[in-house]
Specification:
There is one protein chain. By secondary structure, the chain is mostly helical. Helix content is 71%, strand content 0%. The chain has five helices and no strands. It has helices at residues 3-14, 16-41, 46-53, 57-65, 72-81.
């Protein structure tokens, strides 16, 4: 078990609210990271992507750093702007 995994396990034992919110928070964090990686793989800066989506650079930053409440329509625009298609899966 890594130091990070040990820390997370310890925090989950100490804090019920941390334990209850951890998984959802982690999934939201991963979504932002995936979006940033997809933008970078497309060779776009946040500013270039913002222009393609007809929005501001700060909106792209919010999407990538706080993806917890992102609309499906925004995800579709994001994907289209980087030349990809959006695929969803219910698991």
């Amino acid at each position: 078990m890594s130091d990070l995994q040990a820390y997370i396990a310890k925090r989950k034992k100490r804090s019920r609210s941390f334990a209850e919110g951890y998984e959802i928070g982690y999934e939201q964090f991963k979504l932002g990271v995936l979006l940033r990686q997809a933008r970078e793989a497309a060779g776009l800066t946040q500013e270039e992507l913002a222009r393609r989506m007809n929005t501001r650079k700060s909106a792209i930053s919010r999407i990538e750093n706080h993806a917890e409440d992102i609309k499906l329509s925004t995800l579709e625009k994001f994907a289209e702007a980087i030349g990809k298609t959006l695929r969803l899966r219910v698991a």
